[in-house]
Amino acid sequence: MQTALDTCGIATDNWSVDYPESGDSVTFDGVGLTSSDVYFDEVECFGTELGMPGHVTSEMEQTRALDGRRDASWSGFTVSWSYHPDDGMNAIFALSDER
């Protein structure tokens, strides 16, 4: 996951991104808000670097507040996300047992 963060130029030293020492997950908070340090194109880059299928990216882009929390998985990874106009998009990428 560190390689994907580096490739996409995503800094982990701000409130918008949490990358624990275990290295098994990355949490994005408030994506797209003017006060956030991360934007959707960076999250999309990160997902692409992890091999996230294009249809998952499309689902993330089209999620509405009414949709609640959504999730997807692919070879070795999972992502769950939600969106609210006041809070932006929140997403958690994690390693899965299917590696």
> Ranges with pLDDT <50 over ≥5 residues?
none
If strands are numbered along the chain, what order do they take across the biggest sheet? 1-2-5-4-3
Strand content: 25-35%
Overall pLDDT level: 92
User: How many E-type strands?
Assistant: 5
| Run of helices and strands | HEEHHEEE
* Amino-to-carboxy terminus distance: 13 Å
Number of helices: 3
Largest sheet: 5 strands, antiparallel
Quick one: overall form? globular
**Structural classification:** alpha+beta
Total domains: 1
What is the radius of gyration? 12 Å
Description:
This protein is an alpha+beta fold and 99 residues long. It has one domain. 25% of the residues lie in helices and 30% in strands. The protein has helices spanning 2-7, 40-49, 54-62, and strands at 17-18, 25-31, 70-74, 77-84, 88-95. The protein has a 5-stranded antiparallel sheet, covered by helices on one side. Strand 3 (70-74) and strand 4 form a beta hairpin. It is globular, with a radius of gyration of 12 Å. The mean pLDDT is 92.
Key features of this structure:
5 strands, 3 helices, 25% helix, five-stranded antiparallel beta sheet, 99 residues
SSE blueprint and pairings:
Blueprint: H1 2-7, E1 17-18, E2 25-31, H2 40-49, H3 54-62, E3 70-74, E4 77-84, E5 88-95
